[in-house]
Design goal:
The chain is an alpha+beta fold. It is built from seven helices and seven strands, in the order H-H-H-H-H-E-E-H-E-E-E-H-E-E. Strand 1 and strand 2 form a beta hairpin. Helix 3 crosses helix 6.
């Protein structure tokens, strides 16, 4: 008997992700490069399954969600800090000792991702340490140059003048565009102003408040330009 509608199409099975047990490799690749994580790129029927995927979590270094969380928490520390009682509790937790919480501040820290229960005891999270660095680090204005952008991964590489000149720093492309108001296509080679904790080491460097700046001379970084 002839099939009036042709053969039934069966979608080829996708390769499982080697790093988790909940997603396909393709989904995790999209999730790592997206602030929406894996859960934001799947249908309703699979969201509960992939909602806790570690491959795209904000607790996993170098995911888009992690980069966005570093910026969000640093800005919170500078612009909308915790109540003094909550910050005091966070600092006690950072010491690694048992922290008393007479004011009942821990639920707020847990809600913000700054604290967690470890063996039924309050403990600071990596984001909690990011918050404290945001409060304590000296942040200063510095120039950065956009080296290049990756529109597929939504990432940009920039060179931070007052940090380690010549060492590329990866940031979210959309952060630069939204904060500076510049078109993405105009970013490569562009000089911008940012605020940064220039005394930080490697992954602890957080750039905020990207702003357009006047072009600098080509030989400015080499020190060969006119100093007058």
């Amino acid at each position: 008997m002839d099939e009036p509608f042709g053969p039934e199409y069966i979608r080829p099975a996708q390769k499982d992700c080697p790093r988790c047990s909940c997603c396909t490799e393709a989904l995790c690749q999209r999730g790592r490069d997206s602030v929406m994580r894996c859960v934001g790129h799947t249908g309703d029927e699979a969201r509960e399954t992939v909602s806790g995927c570690p491959c795209s979590a904000e607790t996993t270094r170098h995911t888009a969600a992690w980069r966005a969380a570093q910026v969000r928490v640093t800005r919170m520390a500078r612009e909308l800090p915790l109540a003094p009682e909550a910050e005091a509790l966070l600092r006690e937790m950072a010491k690694g000792a048992h922290a008393e919480d007479p004011a009942g501040m821990f639920p707020e820290l847990e809600l913000r991702g700054l604290g967690q229960l470890v063996h039924a005891r309050p403990a600071i999270t990596p984001l909690g340490h990011t918050y404290l660095r945001g409060r304590d680090d000296i942040r200063e204005a510095t120039a950065v140059r956009v080296i290049d952008i990756d529109t597929k991964a939504r990432l940009a590489r920039v060179e931070v003048v007052a940090w380690l000149p010549g060492v590329p720093v990866t940031v979210l492309m959309d952060q630069i565009a939204s904060e500076s108001g510049l078109d993405v296509d105009s970013l490569p080679g562009r000089w911008l102003d940012v605020e940064a904790n220039c005394g930080a080491e490697d992954d602890e460097l957080v750039l905020t408040a990207f702003r357009a700046s006047a072009p600098l001379p080509e030989d400015w970084m080499s020190g060969e330009g006119d100093a007058s």
